[in-house]
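Design job #97: recover the sequence.
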C-alpha cells in the first residue's frame, strides 16, 4: 500500500465519521471557542457567566429544536419566532384578563400547534413550497402580533405558572440553574429519543432524504410531514413559555431575528438544509456556539456588527462543509 493510498483512506474514514456523527464537528468547534475565550478573557469560565450563556440560549435553542425537525424533512420555517411571540401575547393577554395561568398557557400552546397544522397542510395538501408558505405566515403573524398587543408590550405582573420557568435554584450549592434549563433538556431528550428510537423518527429522516423513495417504501409522507409541523408548533409554544420565564413581558417586537437565529443554530449544529441528515444534539451545540461566540466577543469588546459578520461567515462555512460532505457521500 502506497503512502498516498493510506493517506486517502485516512481522509475517507475521517469523512465517513463526520457523516455518521454530524454533531462531532460542531462539538469540536464549541470546545475550541470556549478554550480561546477562556484564555482571552478573565471571567468567561465563571459559573455565573456559563449559566447566563445557557439561559440566553434557551429560547433560540428551543426554537431551533422545532426547526430541526422541519429541516430534517427538507423544509424550513421562517415564521417560528413570530408564532412564538403570538403565543406569549395570547398567554399574557388572557392572564391579564383574569384567566388562570395554566389555562392561558394551554391556549397559547394550542394556537402555535394550530399554526403548525395549517402550515403542514398547505405544504402537503396544496403542495406549496415550505419557504413560501412560512414566509407568508411570517408576514401575517408579525402583523397579528402587533394587532393583538395593540402596539404595546403586555407584562406578566404576578409570579405564577407563566413565569415559573425563570425560577432559579442552585445545583450542588453553587451552580445557578433555572427550571427552564431543565425543561429544555427534557425536550431535547424526548425529541432525540423520538428521532433515534421510534419508527416515526426513521420516517422523518427517510422523507427528508428522498420523499419519493419513502413513499414507494410504504411511508405516509404527507402524514409524517404534517406531524412534524404539529410537533414543531408544540415546541414553539413551549418556547413562548420559556420566553415569559426569562422576561415576564410579552413584547410584539421581540425576537425579530429569532427565525434566522434558529436556522443558524441548526446549520451550525451539522443538520443539512437539504434534509435527511442531522441530530438534535448538534442543534443544542449549535445554539451554544452562537451564544458562546456572542458572549466571548462581547467580553473582548468587539462591536455587535462584527459579531453578526462572524456568525454569518460561520453559517456559510457550515453550509459549504455540508455540501461537500453530501458530494463525498
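Job complete. Output follows.
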Amino acid at each position: 500500500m502506497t503512502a498516498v493510498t493510506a493517506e486517502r483512506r485516512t481522509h475517507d474514514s475521517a469523512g465517513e465519521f463526520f457523516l455518521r456523527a454530524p454533531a462531532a464537528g460542531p462539538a469540536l468547534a464549541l470546545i475550541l471557542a470556549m478554550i480561546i475565550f477562556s484564555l482571552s478573557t478573565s471571567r468567561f469560565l465563571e459559573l455565573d457567566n456559563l449559566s447566563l450563556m445557557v439561559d440566553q440560549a434557551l429560547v433560540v435553542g428551543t426554537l431551533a429544536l422545532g426547526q430541526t425537525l422541519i429541516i430534517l424533512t427538507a423544509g424550513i420555517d421562517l415564521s417560528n419566532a413570530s408564532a412564538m411571540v403570538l403565543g406569549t401575547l395570547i398567554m399574557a393577554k388572557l392572564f391579564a384578563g383574569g384567566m388562570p395561568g395554566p389555562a392561558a398557557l394551554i391556549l397559547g400552546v394550542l394556537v402555535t400547534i394550530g399554526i403548525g397544522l395549517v402550515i403542514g397542510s398547505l405544504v402537503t395538501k396544496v403542495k406549496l413550497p415550505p419557504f413560501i408558505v412560512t414566509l407568508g405566515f411570517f408576514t401575517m403573524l408579525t402583523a397579528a402580533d402587533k394587532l393583538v398587543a395593540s402596539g404595546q408590550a403586555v407584562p406578566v405582573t404576578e409570579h405564577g405558572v407563566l413565569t415559573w420557568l425563570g425560577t432559579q435554584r442552585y445545583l450542588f450549592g453553587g451552580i445557578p440553574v433555572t427550571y427552564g434549563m431543565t425543561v429544555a433538556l427534557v425536550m431535547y431528550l424526548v425529541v432525540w429519543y423520538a428521532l433515534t428510537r421510534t419508527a416515526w423518527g426513521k420516517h422523518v429522516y427517510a422523507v427528508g432524504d428522498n420523499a419519493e423513495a419513502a413513499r414507494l417504501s410504504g411511508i405516509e409522507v404527507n402524514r409524517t410531514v404534517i406531524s412534524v409541523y404539529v410537533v414543531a408548533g408544540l415546541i414553539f409554544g413551549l418556547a413562548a413559555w420559556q420566553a415569559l420565564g426569562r422576561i415576564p413581558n410579552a413584547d410584539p417586537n421581540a425576537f425579530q431575528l429569532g427565525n434566522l437565529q434558529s436556522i443558524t443554530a441548526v446549520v451550525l449544529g451539522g443538520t443539512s438544509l437539504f434534509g435527511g441528515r442531522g441530530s438534535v444534539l448538534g442543534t443544542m451545540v449549535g445554539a451554544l456556539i452562537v451564544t458562546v461566540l456572542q458572549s466571548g466577543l462581547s467580553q473582548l469588546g468587539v462591536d455587535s456588527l462584527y459579531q453578526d459578520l462572524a456568525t454569518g461567515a460561520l453559517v456559510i462555512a457550515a453550509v459549504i462543509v455540508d455540501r461537500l460532505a453530501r458530494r463525498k457521500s
